[in-house]
Write a structure and sequence with these properties.
It holds the Pfam family Ricin_B_lectin. The protein has strands at 18-19, 25-26, 32-39, 42-49, 67-69, 72-73, 79-83, 90-94, 104-106, 112-114, 117-125, 130-135, 144-146, 152-154, 160-164, 167-171, 185-186. The protein is an all-beta fold. The strands form 7 sheets. A 5-stranded antiparallel sheet has the order 5-9-10-11-12, with no helix packed on it. Strands 1-2 form a two-stranded antiparallel sheet. The protein starts with 17 loop residues before the first strand and ends with a strand.
């Protein structure tokens, strides 16, 4: 519910919010963030601890459409991410113009979805550090940040995507940040 926050009934600092660059809206007073959860009656907005989930990402915009694009290596323009036969692995292979498995939908909530099936999201597998494909669930393992240094990081773990042995994994960023050619991406 939205309340009229005028008068003496509310502490002034309880009505102030901050929006971070990554889309998180936080109450400085409580350190809780706005979170949207789906239910039978629609979407419920609550305050929760910040875990960097996609359900905690917000955009100040009327545009909720995804950007559809291949994700290419910054230093090797002919190498792209690809959903391998729409199974759980994300590969790193030569770019092919118009290849549907190499087209990703980048959403304002920080999720990266397969354009051919937008119910599937790039997901971290914490056991193997592999980036995989799984049903979108709004969780922390599916929220990504496109950083100024051309790395793509999982906001929860802070690890960045890195291509190794033709697959995509999560690793600590190399120093200086993003200097490792296998960690730099563009779209």
């Amino acid at each position: 519910m939205i309340y009229n926050c005028t008068g003496n009934a509310y502490a002034v600092d309880a009505t102030k919010w901050k929006k971070w660059d990554n889309g998180t809206i936080i109450s400085p007073r409580s350190s809780l963030v706005l979170s949207a959860t789906s239910g039978n009656m629609g979407i419920e907005i609550t305050l929760q601890e910040n875990v960097y989930a996609t359900s905690q990402a917000w955009a100040v915009s009327n545009n909720t459409e995804a950007i559809v694009t291949p994700i290419m290596n910054k230093d090797q323009f002919d190498m792209c991410l690809e959903a391998i036969n729409y199974i759980s692995k994300i590969g790193y292979i030569g770019c092919q113009s118009g290849e549907m498995r190499q087209m990703f939908a980048l959403y304002p909530d920080g999720s990266i979805r397969l354009n051919g099936n937008r119910d599937d999201c790039l997901t971290t597998d914490h056991k193997s550090n592999m980036v995989a494909v799984a049903l979108c669930n709004g969780g922390v393992e599916q929220r990504w940040s496109f950083n100024r240094d051309n790395t793509i990081s999982n906001l929860n773990s802070g690890l960045v995507m890195e291509a190794r042995n033709n697959y995509l994994y999560l690793y600590p960023s190399s120093l200086p940040r993003g200097s490792q050619e296998w960690q730099a991406w563009f779209f």
